[in-house]
Write a structure and sequence with these properties.
With 275 residues, the chain is mostly helical. It contains 13 helices and 3 strands.
Length: 275
């Protein structure tokens, strides 16, 4: 691995404090390119890089590699390792709209849960919590009792090590309290399996699949969609979701546009007229 690449990895690890998975992805992408091309990335021109990256037929994989390369070259330029500002263009990908559930669909699913058992109370509280806070499943499963401060949630194990605070709806807080009140043993973490151990990602996935037929992440999309549909400011939603860039949050604006279109079609007198 070249010296410039080592410096970049140290920068994203220490200064930018990216998560372990992100750092590992950057390192893997850039090291493999240096190995394939047989020389430091800093010495390569755009044509050589494009030629090497052309082997990736999947456009999403290609764009991830391009993103890694662009981040590296931007670092090199800003730190005067390179006198040329190189930026490779991304491949165009059709936008995939995020899958989401309506509030009514979630309500219907919650009615199926038997809350007379501890497991039922847990499943009910977990689904409500995910929909009420929009947390990532990793953030949710890392939740400790002390992270719930009244009707506020302190997310300490966020992506990129960036802590944030989000409100919890009263109905979700009540469900969590009911679940925790039935605990037989005091534990730091909130979500537990039937043996009393920490709930795993696979178990959380099975819970949302059982009642909703979707992954836990769809509840995060549902949370964001509900906020946008209700008129929430995009930057507020960005803050609540913990997105580093507003561009990531903008995928939800299609909901707002669709609502506007349907409103015009229903309410405007010219909507039903033909040309």
């Amino acid at each position: 691995m070249s010296g410039e690449l080592e410096a970049f990895i140290e920068y994203i690890t220490v200064i930018r404090a990216l998560g372990k998975k992100s750092v590992s992805a950057y390192r893997s992408d850039l090291k493999s390119l240096e190995a394939i091309l047989g020389k430091p990335l800093i010495e390569l021109d755009s044509a050589s890089l494009f030629s090497s990256l052309s082997q990736y037929k999947n456009k999403r994989t290609l764009n991830r590699k391009l993103s890694s390369v662009n981040a590296f070259f931007d670092f090199c330029y800003k730190n005067q390792f390179s006198g040329e500002k190189t930026k490779l263009k991304f491949s165009k990908i059709p936008k995939l709209l995020p899958k989401f559930l309506s509030y009514q669909e979630i309500q219907n699913a919650l009615k199926q849960i038997d809350k007379s058992t501890l497991i039922g109370l847990r499943d009910y509280a977990l689904i409500l919590f995910l929909y009420a806070t929009g947390t990532r499943i990793s953030e949710c499963l890392a939740l400790a009792r002390e992270d719930i401060e009244g009707e506020w949630l302190h997310i300490r194990h966020a992506k990129g090590e960036k802590e944030r605070i989000v409100p919890i709806a009263a109905v979700a807080k009540k469900a969590i309290d009911s679940y925790l009140d039935e605990m037989t043993k005091e534990k730091d973490f909130v979500w537990r399996n039937y043996k009393g151990g920490k709930l795993s990602r696979i178990s959380a996935y099975k819970i949302t699949q059982k009642y909703l037929g979707v992954s836990p992440h769809v509840l995060r999309h549902s949370y964001a969609t509900s906020l946008i549909s209700g008129g929430a400011d995009l930057r507020v939603v960005q803050e609540l979701l913990g997105h580093a860039s507003l561009l990531t949050t903008q995928i939800y604006t299609h909901i707002q546009k669709q609502d506007l279109k349907e409103t015009v079609e229903v309410c405007h007198p010219m909507a039903k007229e033909t040309a």
